[in-house]
Amino acid sequence: MIAYEKDASSVNVGIRLREMRQGMDISMRALAARSGLSANALSMIERGKTSPSVSTLYKLADALGVPITTFFGAQASRDRIVFIKAETRTRVPFRGGLWEGLGGEKFVGRVEPFIITVESGVSSGPHSMVHTGHEFVYCLRGHLEYHIDNQAFDLEPGDSLIFASHLRHRWRNVGNTVTNALIVLSNFSEGEQVASMHVAQGEAGS
To answer: pLDDT band at residue 178, thresholds of 50, 70 and 90?
Structure first.
C-alpha cells in the first residue's frame, strides 16, 4: 500500500467535490447524470466513505468543467517564482496511486512537474493520451512501461524518456512493486489541462 507523510498537504477530495458542486449550484442528481456515476457513489465520495479512483476523478472533472488539480485544494494564484518545501507539497491520494505537485499548479509558465506513485497494475487508462508540448519522464523506483505510438519503453530506476506529446501515449506499472516517476510536461498550449490527463484516467487492471 502507498503511504505518505502525515504532515504532507493532503486534500480531502470529498469535501472539495461537495464545495465545487454546491458552489456551481449543481444537484447530486445532475452531477450523476453528467458524470455517468450513480448518486449513491457521489454521496459516498462526498461523505468520505470511499476514495475515488483516478478514472472517477477524471469523470467528475470533465462533468464539472474543471482541471483535475481543482480537486487538490483552493485555486492558487500563479506566480513567476514558486518555491515549495517538501512538507508543504500538495499530495492527493487516489485509489491505487498518489499525485504530488511540484509547483507547476502555481506557476505562470507552461511547465507542469509532478511525481506519480502507483501500485502494481495501475495504468493511465485503456485509451492513449494526446496533447500539445513535450513530455519528460524519469523513473525513480519500480518499473514503468510507456507506450508511444507503436513502441514500448521499459523504464527502470534511473531511466528517462522524452518525446513530443502529440504522439499517442499511455503508461502502466508493470512491476510487482510500487513505482515512482517524475513527469515534466512543458510547452503545452495555454489553458490545456495536460496534467489531468496523466492522473485521471486509469486504475488497477486497466
So the answer is: very high
Domains and CATH numbers, the chain: 9-71 (1.10.260.40), 79-199 (2.60.120.10)
Q: What is the pLDDT of residues 83-97, one digit of tens each?
A: 999 988 888 777 788
What is the amino acid identity at position 177?
A: T
Could you tell me the three cell numbers for 50?
A: 470511499
3-state secondary structure string across the chain: CCCCCCCCEECCHHHHHHHHHHHCCCCHHHHHHHHCCCHHHHHHHHCCCCCCEHHHHHHHHHHHCCCHHHHHCCCCCCECCCCCCHHHCEEEEEECEEEEECCHHHECCCEEEEEEEECCCCECCCCCECCCCEEEEEEEECCEEEEECCEEEEECCCCEEEEECCCCEEEEECCCCCEEEEEEEECCCCCCCHHHHHHCCCCCCC
Residues near 81 by beta carbon (within 8 Å), at least 6 away in sequence: none
Higher-confidence residue: 107 or 164?
164
User: Do the bridges between strand 111-118 and strand 169-173 make them parallel or antiparallel, or are there none, so unpaired?
Assistant: unpaired
Q: Would the pLDDT of 33 be above 90? A: yes
